[in-house]
Design brief:
With about 425 residues, the protein is α+β, with helices and mostly antiparallel strands. It is built from 15 helices and eleven strands. The protein has helices spanning about 55-60, 70-80, 105-115, 125-140, 145-155, 170-175, 180-190, 205-215, 265-275, 275-290, 320-335, 340-360, 365-375, 380-390, 395-405; strands spanning about 15, 20-25, 35-40, 85-90, 95-100, 195-200, 235-240, 250-255, 295-305, 310-315, 410-415. The protein has a six-stranded mixed beta sheet, with helices on both faces.
Length: about 425
Protein backbone atom coordinates (compact mmCIF):
# COMPACT_ATOMS: atom_id res chain seq x y z
CA UNK A 1 0.00 0.00 0.00
CA UNK A 2 1.30 3.47 -0.86
CA UNK A 3 0.84 6.60 1.20
CA UNK A 4 -0.12 8.87 -1.71
CA UNK A 5 -2.87 6.76 -3.29
CA UNK A 6 -6.45 7.68 -2.44
CA UNK A 7 -7.81 5.68 0.50
CA UNK A 8 -10.07 3.11 -1.16
CA UNK A 9 -10.72 -0.62 -1.33
CA UNK A 10 -7.28 -1.14 -2.91
CA UNK A 11 -5.32 0.74 -0.25
CA UNK A 12 -7.40 0.06 2.88
CA UNK A 13 -7.85 -3.33 4.53
CA UNK A 14 -11.28 -3.83 6.09
CA UNK A 15 -11.90 -6.81 8.37
CA UNK A 16 -14.84 -7.63 10.65
CA UNK A 17 -13.80 -9.78 13.61
CA UNK A 18 -15.94 -12.63 14.88
CA UNK A 19 -17.21 -10.42 17.73
CA UNK A 20 -18.49 -7.71 15.37
CA UNK A 21 -15.55 -5.29 15.72
CA UNK A 22 -14.80 -3.66 12.36
CA UNK A 23 -11.12 -2.86 11.71
CA UNK A 24 -9.77 -0.65 8.92
CA UNK A 25 -6.03 -0.37 8.31
CA UNK A 26 -4.29 2.06 6.00
CA UNK A 27 -0.49 1.87 5.72
CA UNK A 28 1.55 5.07 5.41
CA UNK A 29 5.29 4.67 5.85
CA UNK A 30 6.24 8.31 5.29
CA UNK A 31 6.86 8.84 9.04
CA UNK A 32 7.21 6.45 12.03
CA UNK A 33 3.86 7.50 13.51
CA UNK A 34 0.54 5.68 13.97
CA UNK A 35 -2.93 7.08 14.64
CA UNK A 36 -5.85 4.95 15.81
CA UNK A 37 -9.38 6.30 16.01
CA UNK A 38 -12.64 4.59 16.76
CA UNK A 39 -16.32 4.74 17.66
CA UNK A 40 -18.08 2.55 20.20
CA UNK A 41 -21.88 2.55 19.61
CA UNK A 42 -22.61 3.98 23.08
CA UNK A 43 -23.91 7.53 23.22
CA UNK A 44 -26.33 9.94 24.80
CA UNK A 45 -29.31 8.34 23.01
CA UNK A 46 -28.95 5.58 25.64
CA UNK A 47 -29.68 8.02 28.47
CA UNK A 48 -32.86 9.32 30.02
CA UNK A 49 -33.55 12.98 30.76
CA UNK A 50 -32.83 12.25 34.42
CA UNK A 51 -29.32 10.87 33.80
CA UNK A 52 -28.31 13.21 30.96
CA UNK A 53 -24.53 13.33 30.67
CA UNK A 54 -24.09 9.68 31.65
CA UNK A 55 -22.32 8.57 28.46
CA UNK A 56 -20.01 11.58 28.61
CA UNK A 57 -19.22 10.83 32.27
CA UNK A 58 -18.38 7.21 31.43
CA UNK A 59 -16.08 8.31 28.59
CA UNK A 60 -14.30 10.69 30.97
CA UNK A 61 -13.71 7.83 33.42
CA UNK A 62 -12.05 5.45 30.95
CA UNK A 63 -8.55 6.80 31.62
CA UNK A 64 -9.12 7.29 35.37
CA UNK A 65 -8.23 3.77 36.41
CA UNK A 66 -8.53 0.35 34.80
CA UNK A 67 -7.65 -3.27 35.57
CA UNK A 68 -3.95 -2.78 34.70
CA UNK A 69 -3.46 0.95 35.24
CA UNK A 70 -4.26 3.36 38.02
CA UNK A 71 -4.88 6.95 36.95
CA UNK A 72 -1.25 7.87 37.71
CA UNK A 73 0.13 4.73 36.02
CA UNK A 74 -1.90 5.43 32.91
CA UNK A 75 -0.56 8.98 32.65
CA UNK A 76 3.01 7.89 33.36
CA UNK A 77 2.84 5.15 30.73
CA UNK A 78 1.39 7.34 27.98
CA UNK A 79 3.64 10.31 28.76
CA UNK A 80 6.76 8.12 28.86
CA UNK A 81 5.97 7.04 25.30
CA UNK A 82 5.29 10.59 24.16
CA UNK A 83 1.89 9.30 23.07
CA UNK A 84 -1.71 10.43 23.58
CA UNK A 85 -5.00 8.68 24.30
CA UNK A 86 -8.36 10.36 24.76
CA UNK A 87 -12.08 9.63 24.67
CA UNK A 88 -15.33 11.55 24.38
CA UNK A 89 -19.03 11.04 23.79
CA UNK A 90 -21.65 12.12 21.25
CA UNK A 91 -25.28 11.30 20.52
CA UNK A 92 -24.69 7.85 19.03
CA UNK A 93 -21.15 6.91 19.95
CA UNK A 94 -18.19 7.19 22.27
CA UNK A 95 -15.08 8.18 20.37
CA UNK A 96 -11.48 7.37 21.20
CA UNK A 97 -8.13 8.16 19.62
CA UNK A 98 -4.46 7.38 20.14
CA UNK A 99 -1.29 8.74 18.57
CA UNK A 100 2.13 7.16 19.06
CA UNK A 101 5.39 6.23 17.43
CA UNK A 102 5.04 3.04 15.41
CA UNK A 103 7.41 1.16 17.74
CA UNK A 104 5.10 1.97 20.68
CA UNK A 105 1.85 1.15 18.88
CA UNK A 106 1.56 -2.42 20.29
CA UNK A 107 1.76 -1.08 23.85
CA UNK A 108 -0.77 1.66 23.09
CA UNK A 109 -3.21 -0.95 21.78
CA UNK A 110 -2.78 -2.88 25.01
CA UNK A 111 -3.47 0.31 27.00
CA UNK A 112 -6.46 1.18 24.82
CA UNK A 113 -7.93 -2.29 25.18
CA UNK A 114 -7.62 -2.14 28.96
CA UNK A 115 -9.15 1.30 29.47
CA UNK A 116 -12.03 0.64 27.06
CA UNK A 117 -12.85 -2.86 28.29
CA UNK A 118 -11.88 -2.78 31.97
CA UNK A 119 -12.42 0.65 33.59
CA UNK A 120 -12.79 0.41 37.37
CA UNK A 121 -14.53 3.73 38.10
CA UNK A 122 -12.64 4.47 41.34
CA UNK A 123 -14.90 6.41 43.70
CA UNK A 124 -12.30 9.12 44.31
CA UNK A 125 -11.89 9.69 40.57
CA UNK A 126 -15.67 9.69 40.03
CA UNK A 127 -15.98 12.59 42.46
CA UNK A 128 -13.02 14.42 40.93
CA UNK A 129 -14.49 14.14 37.43
CA UNK A 130 -17.90 15.17 38.77
CA UNK A 131 -16.40 18.37 40.23
CA UNK A 132 -14.65 19.15 36.95
CA UNK A 133 -17.84 18.63 34.97
CA UNK A 134 -19.86 20.84 37.30
CA UNK A 135 -17.31 23.63 36.87
CA UNK A 136 -17.52 23.31 33.08
CA UNK A 137 -21.31 23.44 33.27
CA UNK A 138 -21.05 26.64 35.32
CA UNK A 139 -18.79 28.06 32.62
CA UNK A 140 -21.30 27.02 29.93
CA UNK A 141 -24.07 28.83 31.80
CA UNK A 142 -22.08 32.07 31.46
CA UNK A 143 -21.32 31.65 27.74
CA UNK A 144 -23.87 33.32 25.44
CA UNK A 145 -22.76 31.32 22.39
CA UNK A 146 -23.05 27.93 24.08
CA UNK A 147 -26.33 28.76 25.81
CA UNK A 148 -27.92 29.92 22.57
CA UNK A 149 -26.95 26.64 20.90
CA UNK A 150 -28.11 24.60 23.91
CA UNK A 151 -31.52 26.28 24.02
CA UNK A 152 -31.89 25.97 20.23
CA UNK A 153 -31.41 22.19 20.24
CA UNK A 154 -33.68 21.79 23.26
CA UNK A 155 -36.36 23.87 21.54
CA UNK A 156 -36.22 22.35 18.07
CA UNK A 157 -36.02 18.71 19.25
CA UNK A 158 -38.23 19.05 22.31
CA UNK A 159 -37.97 16.04 24.63
CA UNK A 160 -36.17 13.93 22.03
CA UNK A 161 -32.66 12.65 23.02
CA UNK A 162 -31.13 14.86 20.29
CA UNK A 163 -32.41 17.87 22.23
CA UNK A 164 -30.44 17.12 25.40
CA UNK A 165 -26.91 18.29 26.07
CA UNK A 166 -24.43 15.42 25.71
CA UNK A 167 -22.47 16.91 28.62
CA UNK A 168 -25.59 16.86 30.77
CA UNK A 169 -26.94 19.39 33.26
CA UNK A 170 -25.93 20.41 36.76
CA UNK A 171 -28.80 18.47 38.36
CA UNK A 172 -28.20 15.26 36.40
CA UNK A 173 -24.41 15.27 36.87
CA UNK A 174 -24.82 15.82 40.62
CA UNK A 175 -27.24 12.90 40.84
CA UNK A 176 -25.30 10.29 38.83
CA UNK A 177 -23.98 7.38 40.88
CA UNK A 178 -20.99 5.13 40.38
CA UNK A 179 -23.35 2.19 39.92
CA UNK A 180 -25.00 3.95 36.97
CA UNK A 181 -21.60 4.44 35.34
CA UNK A 182 -20.68 0.77 35.81
CA UNK A 183 -24.06 -0.41 34.49
CA UNK A 184 -23.93 1.86 31.44
CA UNK A 185 -20.47 0.58 30.55
CA UNK A 186 -21.55 -3.05 30.95
CA UNK A 187 -24.70 -2.53 28.88
CA UNK A 188 -23.42 -0.47 25.96
CA UNK A 189 -19.66 -0.93 25.53
CA UNK A 190 -19.71 -3.69 22.98
CA UNK A 191 -17.40 -4.72 20.12
CA UNK A 192 -20.45 -5.41 17.97
CA UNK A 193 -20.74 -2.21 15.95
CA UNK A 194 -17.49 -0.73 17.20
CA UNK A 195 -15.12 0.62 14.53
CA UNK A 196 -11.33 0.84 14.93
CA UNK A 197 -9.28 2.61 12.25
CA UNK A 198 -5.47 2.40 12.20
CA UNK A 199 -3.42 4.66 9.90
CA UNK A 200 0.35 5.02 9.74
CA UNK A 201 3.67 3.20 9.73
CA UNK A 202 2.36 -0.32 10.32
CA UNK A 203 2.14 -3.71 8.67
CA UNK A 204 -1.51 -4.57 8.02
CA UNK A 205 -1.34 -8.22 9.03
CA UNK A 206 0.58 -7.42 12.20
CA UNK A 207 -2.06 -4.85 13.12
CA UNK A 208 -4.88 -7.32 12.56
CA UNK A 209 -3.06 -9.94 14.66
CA UNK A 210 -2.45 -7.38 17.41
CA UNK A 211 -6.06 -6.18 17.49
CA UNK A 212 -7.32 -9.75 17.51
CA UNK A 213 -5.05 -10.46 20.50
CA UNK A 214 -6.17 -7.36 22.43
CA UNK A 215 -9.85 -7.20 21.47
CA UNK A 216 -10.71 -10.72 20.25
CA UNK A 217 -12.08 -11.88 23.61
CA UNK A 218 -14.22 -8.76 24.01
CA UNK A 219 -17.87 -9.81 23.76
CA UNK A 220 -21.29 -8.20 23.77
CA UNK A 221 -24.52 -7.89 21.84
CA UNK A 222 -25.04 -4.95 19.49
CA UNK A 223 -26.15 -1.77 21.23
CA UNK A 224 -29.69 -0.74 20.32
CA UNK A 225 -29.49 2.40 18.15
CA UNK A 226 -33.24 2.91 17.76
CA UNK A 227 -34.56 6.21 19.04
CA UNK A 228 -38.00 7.81 19.34
CA UNK A 229 -39.32 9.41 16.15
CA UNK A 230 -38.51 13.08 15.59
CA UNK A 231 -41.60 15.22 16.13
CA UNK A 232 -41.45 18.54 14.29
CA UNK A 233 -41.99 21.34 16.81
CA UNK A 234 -43.91 24.52 16.10
CA UNK A 235 -41.81 27.53 15.13
CA UNK A 236 -40.74 29.27 18.31
CA UNK A 237 -38.88 32.37 19.43
CA UNK A 238 -36.96 31.92 22.67
CA UNK A 239 -35.06 34.49 24.72
CA UNK A 240 -32.56 33.18 27.25
CA UNK A 241 -31.80 36.27 29.35
CA UNK A 242 -28.20 36.68 30.52
CA UNK A 243 -27.60 39.98 32.29
CA UNK A 244 -24.14 41.57 32.59
CA UNK A 245 -23.14 40.40 29.09
CA UNK A 246 -22.00 42.70 26.32
CA UNK A 247 -22.91 40.36 23.45
CA UNK A 248 -26.03 38.49 22.44
CA UNK A 249 -25.76 35.27 20.45
CA UNK A 250 -28.53 34.08 18.21
CA UNK A 251 -29.26 30.77 16.51
CA UNK A 252 -31.85 30.61 13.73
CA UNK A 253 -32.74 27.38 11.97
CA UNK A 254 -35.02 24.48 11.31
CA UNK A 255 -35.11 20.69 11.15
CA UNK A 256 -33.45 19.37 8.00
CA UNK A 257 -32.23 15.95 6.91
CA UNK A 258 -30.16 13.00 8.20
CA UNK A 259 -26.70 12.27 6.80
CA UNK A 260 -27.80 9.51 4.43
CA UNK A 261 -30.63 11.52 2.81
CA UNK A 262 -30.34 11.87 -1.01
CA UNK A 263 -30.40 15.68 -0.64
CA UNK A 264 -27.40 15.77 1.70
CA UNK A 265 -24.86 16.92 -0.89
CA UNK A 266 -27.19 19.54 -2.36
CA UNK A 267 -27.79 21.00 1.11
CA UNK A 268 -24.06 20.94 1.79
CA UNK A 269 -23.34 22.93 -1.36
CA UNK A 270 -26.20 25.34 -0.59
CA UNK A 271 -25.02 25.79 2.99
CA UNK A 272 -21.45 26.51 1.87
CA UNK A 273 -22.72 29.30 -0.39
CA UNK A 274 -25.03 30.59 2.35
CA UNK A 275 -22.63 30.73 5.25
CA UNK A 276 -19.29 28.94 4.89
CA UNK A 277 -17.27 29.83 1.80
CA UNK A 278 -14.61 32.56 1.98
CA UNK A 279 -15.56 35.04 4.72
CA UNK A 280 -18.43 32.77 5.80
CA UNK A 281 -20.47 32.99 2.63
CA UNK A 282 -23.36 35.31 2.01
CA UNK A 283 -24.14 35.65 5.71
CA UNK A 284 -20.60 36.78 6.49
CA UNK A 285 -20.62 39.12 3.53
CA UNK A 286 -23.97 40.81 4.16
CA UNK A 287 -24.68 40.56 7.88
CA UNK A 288 -21.10 41.09 9.08
CA UNK A 289 -19.13 42.91 6.39
CA UNK A 290 -21.69 45.09 4.57
CA UNK A 291 -24.18 45.82 7.34
CA UNK A 292 -21.83 45.58 10.33
CA UNK A 293 -24.51 43.86 12.40
CA UNK A 294 -22.50 40.92 13.76
CA UNK A 295 -19.10 40.08 15.19
CA UNK A 296 -19.45 36.75 13.39
CA UNK A 297 -22.15 35.18 11.24
CA UNK A 298 -22.20 31.79 9.52
CA UNK A 299 -24.39 28.78 8.82
CA UNK A 300 -23.95 25.04 9.31
CA UNK A 301 -25.68 21.71 8.83
CA UNK A 302 -25.71 19.19 11.65
CA UNK A 303 -26.77 15.89 10.07
CA UNK A 304 -27.22 13.00 12.46
CA UNK A 305 -28.15 9.37 11.78
CA UNK A 306 -31.88 10.05 12.08
CA UNK A 307 -32.35 13.79 11.63
CA UNK A 308 -30.56 17.06 11.10
CA UNK A 309 -30.77 20.80 11.56
CA UNK A 310 -29.80 23.62 9.24
CA UNK A 311 -28.98 26.75 11.18
CA UNK A 312 -27.26 30.10 11.23
CA UNK A 313 -25.42 31.58 14.19
CA UNK A 314 -24.35 35.15 14.92
CA UNK A 315 -22.85 37.16 17.74
CA UNK A 316 -24.27 40.67 17.87
CA UNK A 317 -24.61 43.84 19.86
CA UNK A 318 -27.84 43.41 21.89
CA UNK A 319 -29.23 46.51 20.21
CA UNK A 320 -28.87 44.83 16.79
CA UNK A 321 -30.57 41.50 17.54
CA UNK A 322 -33.80 42.25 15.67
CA UNK A 323 -32.03 43.79 12.68
CA UNK A 324 -29.52 40.92 12.43
CA UNK A 325 -32.32 38.35 12.70
CA UNK A 326 -34.22 40.00 9.85
CA UNK A 327 -31.05 40.15 7.75
CA UNK A 328 -30.31 36.44 8.26
CA UNK A 329 -33.89 35.46 7.44
CA UNK A 330 -33.69 37.61 4.30
CA UNK A 331 -30.65 35.60 3.17
CA UNK A 332 -32.53 32.35 3.88
CA UNK A 333 -35.36 33.65 1.69
CA UNK A 334 -33.07 34.88 -1.10
CA UNK A 335 -31.20 31.60 -1.58
CA UNK A 336 -34.52 29.76 -1.80
CA UNK A 337 -36.16 32.23 -4.19
CA UNK A 338 -33.31 33.33 -6.47
CA UNK A 339 -30.91 31.05 -8.34
CA UNK A 340 -27.31 31.32 -7.12
CA UNK A 341 -24.84 32.46 -9.75
CA UNK A 342 -22.95 29.93 -11.83
CA UNK A 343 -19.74 31.46 -10.46
CA UNK A 344 -20.82 30.98 -6.83
CA UNK A 345 -21.70 27.37 -7.53
CA UNK A 346 -18.44 26.66 -9.38
CA UNK A 347 -16.31 28.30 -6.67
CA UNK A 348 -18.11 26.32 -3.97
CA UNK A 349 -17.73 23.03 -5.81
CA UNK A 350 -14.02 23.71 -6.34
CA UNK A 351 -13.65 24.50 -2.64
CA UNK A 352 -15.55 21.43 -1.40
CA UNK A 353 -13.54 19.09 -3.60
CA UNK A 354 -10.26 20.95 -3.10
CA UNK A 355 -10.24 20.65 0.69
CA UNK A 356 -10.42 16.85 0.58
CA UNK A 357 -6.74 16.27 -0.38
CA UNK A 358 -5.75 18.66 2.44
CA UNK A 359 -7.66 16.62 5.01
CA UNK A 360 -5.91 13.48 3.77
CA UNK A 361 -2.40 14.89 4.25
CA UNK A 362 -2.16 13.64 7.85
CA UNK A 363 -2.70 10.23 9.42
CA UNK A 364 -5.30 11.77 11.72
CA UNK A 365 -7.18 13.24 8.75
CA UNK A 366 -7.20 9.91 6.93
CA UNK A 367 -8.28 8.07 10.09
CA UNK A 368 -11.20 10.40 10.78
CA UNK A 369 -12.30 10.28 7.14
CA UNK A 370 -12.25 6.47 7.06
CA UNK A 371 -14.00 6.31 10.43
CA UNK A 372 -16.90 8.44 9.21
CA UNK A 373 -17.06 6.58 5.90
CA UNK A 374 -17.53 3.35 7.83
CA UNK A 375 -19.89 4.80 10.45
CA UNK A 376 -22.25 6.21 7.83
CA UNK A 377 -21.78 3.15 5.58
CA UNK A 378 -20.60 5.24 2.65
CA UNK A 379 -18.39 2.51 1.18
CA UNK A 380 -14.63 2.45 0.57
CA UNK A 381 -15.19 3.95 -2.88
CA UNK A 382 -16.74 7.10 -1.35
CA UNK A 383 -13.72 9.37 -1.93
CA UNK A 384 -13.61 8.30 -5.57
CA UNK A 385 -17.30 9.09 -5.99
CA UNK A 386 -17.21 12.31 -3.98
CA UNK A 387 -16.17 14.78 -6.75
CA UNK A 388 -19.03 13.60 -8.97
CA UNK A 389 -21.46 13.91 -6.05
CA UNK A 390 -20.44 17.55 -5.56
CA UNK A 391 -20.12 18.53 -9.21
CA UNK A 392 -23.44 16.83 -9.93
CA UNK A 393 -25.25 19.52 -7.92
CA UNK A 394 -26.95 22.14 -10.12
CA UNK A 395 -28.10 25.71 -9.55
CA UNK A 396 -31.65 24.32 -9.49
CA UNK A 397 -30.73 21.78 -6.81
CA UNK A 398 -29.36 24.52 -4.57
CA UNK A 399 -32.49 26.64 -4.89
CA UNK A 400 -34.78 23.64 -4.39
CA UNK A 401 -33.22 22.37 -1.16
CA UNK A 402 -32.86 25.88 0.24
CA UNK A 403 -36.56 26.57 -0.35
CA UNK A 404 -37.53 23.17 1.05
CA UNK A 405 -35.39 22.95 4.17
CA UNK A 406 -34.66 26.48 5.36
CA UNK A 407 -37.96 28.28 4.95
CA UNK A 408 -37.72 31.51 7.00
CA UNK A 409 -41.40 31.15 7.95
CA UNK A 410 -40.62 27.85 9.73
CA UNK A 411 -37.43 28.85 11.55
CA UNK A 412 -36.98 28.68 15.30
CA UNK A 413 -35.11 31.69 16.68
CA UNK A 414 -33.15 31.59 19.94
CA UNK A 415 -31.32 34.52 21.52
CA UNK A 416 -29.05 34.29 24.56
CA UNK A 417 -27.77 37.45 26.17
CA UNK A 418 -28.92 40.78 27.59
CA UNK A 419 -31.96 42.55 26.25
CA UNK A 420 -31.46 45.73 24.24
CA UNK A 421 -32.58 47.79 27.23
CA UNK A 422 -29.88 46.27 29.42
Amino acid sequence: MTSNALPNADTVARVVLHNGLTVLVRENHSAPVVVAEGYIPAGSIHESAENAGLSSFVASMLTRGSARYTFDEFNETVEALGASLGAGSDNHYTSFSTTSLSEDFPQMMQVLSDVVRNPLFPEEQVERVRRQKLVRLQERAQDTNRMAALRFYETIYGHHPYGRAVSGYTESIRALTRDELVTYHADYYTPNGTILVVVGDVDTQQVLDLIHAQFGTWAGAPADQTIPPIVAMERQQVLHPMADKFQADLVIGTLAIPRKHPDYFATRVANTILGQFGMMGRLGETVREEQGLAYYSYSSIDSELHAGVWLAQAGVNPAHVEQATESILAEFKRIGEEPVSAEELADTQAYLTGVVPLTLETNAGVASTLLNMEWYQLGLDYLERYPDLIYGITVEDVQRVAAQYIDPEQCTIVVAGPTAEE
